[in-house]
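4.2 Preliminary Data

To establish feasibility before requesting continued support, the project team ran the inverse folding procedure on a target of 495 residues. The structure was first converted into the token representation described in Section 3, and no sequence information of any kind was made available to the design step. The complete token record follows.
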């Protein structure tokens, strides 16, 4: 196979050399595209054969040649640009001799060409450009994967995404839908008077979530910095400053494992609204995501693998402790103490647990182990233990739980939200406990004194939510690995 590729590459390099010798620039930059293929097909795709026989419709466009069927003195080929595909037909007697020689002797599948001609319909009624002039814009030196096989090697697809996008139309569609998802979310939030902002990606103190950060160094300031694990604390500073509704769609970085659900670099939406509660955000998120699913998929009910997910509101809502009994199958007296929950987790060989873990932390871990994967339709889980919610407000009626929810769809967490803790004294104590715990784990976290000072200025009653864009796109495109929805996922370098 490698030898065959070397022969093809050598043959194309020979053509490249001959083009230059004949005064033809194989990498020209003076062509101005007048219309894209989608515009042509939208404007004329509904016209019949008789229309084109009575009307000469001149067109001029450009794109990559993805297939050629040659019949000696005539050939059909397909031209694709970033918007669509269209068949072309070139006949020796219908073009200048130099144009047909260029096509037949020097142009290969994968080359990027400009064409001029007029539209007609073939005997099979396919809309086609009859070529009157063709020129090469970019000579492709490496061959494309065979169209009928595509690019199937998973690792190669991710490493050479540019080839994957050329070869696989369904992959291009995933990333078009990803853009639609983000555009919809932006428009939805803007319609509710949220202000889009940008906060630091490099931070002196990585806060806002529990995760191991990436470390970097600023030479001029001789300062250790960290890639952000979340924008949360900066966004809440903006609410303190008087922006009542803010959001950010951006990259976060966590120096942790890679799996079908995790990539070290990922995209998050975080938004905050003053004078609101987590109950308001449940309704808000429900409205946003149900409308999003209907817009992207054309229905509230979407397929994800073997499951059918129903996004029609209202979404299911359940308290964490209740879910352990109703879905996890535990009796209330089996999970009413830290020792009992620890023993259950120990029997399940759960990694990383300790007798010193709090009852709330153990309950949350038991939920993760036994309930999360069973939450298929969109489900809000509420009343998380305070110990596993260091930035959330305590519930007024039950001080052991936080005013918080997590949204689960298809057995995985999609979003996390809570009424924000705006008591600076309570937050300071929780930060101290969090710092002590993380220092023991070797994580580089320090007390964020500036954030405490910001809270002392006064954070109005506020609710905030974070939603994983990549996981959301996975659901809406029926993709089962996060690498399928990230254009250039992180991969171990080839040696």
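Position-by-position output of the design step:
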């Amino acid at each position: 196979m490698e030898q065959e590729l070397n022969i093809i590459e050598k043959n194309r390099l020979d053509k490249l050399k001959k083009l230059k010798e004949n005064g033809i620039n194989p990498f020209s930059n003076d062509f101005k595209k007048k219309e894209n293929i989608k515009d042509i097909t939208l404007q004329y795709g509904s016209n019949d054969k008789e229309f084109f026989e009575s009307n000469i419709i001149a067109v001029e466009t450009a794109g990559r040649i993805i297939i050629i069927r040659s019949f000696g003195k005539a050939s059909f080929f397909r031209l694709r640009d970033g918007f669509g595909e269209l068949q072309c037909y070139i006949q020796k007697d219908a073009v200048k001799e130099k144009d047909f020689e260029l096509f037949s002797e020097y142009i290969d599948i994968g080359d990027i060409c400009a064409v001029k001609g007029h539209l007609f319909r073939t005997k099979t009624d396919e809309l086609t450009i009859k070529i009157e002039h063709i020129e090469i814009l970019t000579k492709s030196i490496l061959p494309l994967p065979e169209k009928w096989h595509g690019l199937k090697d998973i690792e190669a697809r991710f490493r050479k995404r540019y080839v994957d996008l050329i070869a696989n139309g369904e992959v291009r569609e995933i990333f078009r839908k990803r853009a639609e998802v983000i555009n919809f979310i932006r428009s939805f939030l803007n319609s509710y008077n949220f202000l889009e902002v940008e906060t630091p990606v490099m931070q002196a103190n990585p806060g806002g979530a529990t995760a191991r950060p990436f470390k970097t160094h600023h030479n001029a300031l001789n300062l250790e910095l960290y890639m952000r694990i979340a924008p949360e604390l900066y966004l809440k500073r903006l609410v303190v400053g008087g922006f009542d509704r803010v959001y950010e769609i951006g990259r976060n970085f966590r120096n942790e494992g890679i799996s079908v659900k995790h990539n070290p670099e990922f995209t998050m939406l975080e938004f905050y609204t003053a004078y609101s509660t987590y109950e308001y955000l449940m309704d808000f998120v429900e409205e946003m995501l149900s409308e999003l699913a209907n817009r992207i998929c054309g229905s509230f009910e979407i397929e994800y693998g073997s499951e059918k997910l129903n996004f029609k509101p209202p979404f299911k809502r359940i308290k964490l402790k209740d879910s352990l009994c109703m879905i996890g199958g535990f009796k209330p007296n089996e999970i009413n103490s830290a020792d009992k929950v620890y023993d259950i987790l120990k029997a399940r060989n759960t990694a990383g647990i300790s007798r010193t873990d709090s009852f709330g932390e153990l309950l949350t871990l038991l939920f993760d182990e036994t309930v999360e994967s069973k939450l298929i339709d969109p489900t809000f889980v509420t009343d998380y233990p305070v110990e596993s919610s260091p930035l959330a407000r305590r519930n007024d009626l039950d001080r052991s739980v936080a005013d918080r929810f997590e949204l689960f769809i298809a057995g995985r967490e999609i979003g996390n939200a809570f009424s924000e803790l705006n008591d600076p004294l309570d937050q300071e104590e929780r930060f101290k406990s969090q710092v002590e715990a993380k220092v023991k784990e070797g994580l580089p976290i320090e007390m964020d004194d500036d954030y405490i000072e910001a809270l002392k200025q006064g954070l109005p009653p506020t609710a905030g939510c974070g939603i994983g864009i990549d996981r959301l796109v996975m659901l809406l495109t029926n993709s089962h690995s996060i690498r399928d929805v990230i254009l250039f996922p992180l991969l171990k370098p080839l040696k």
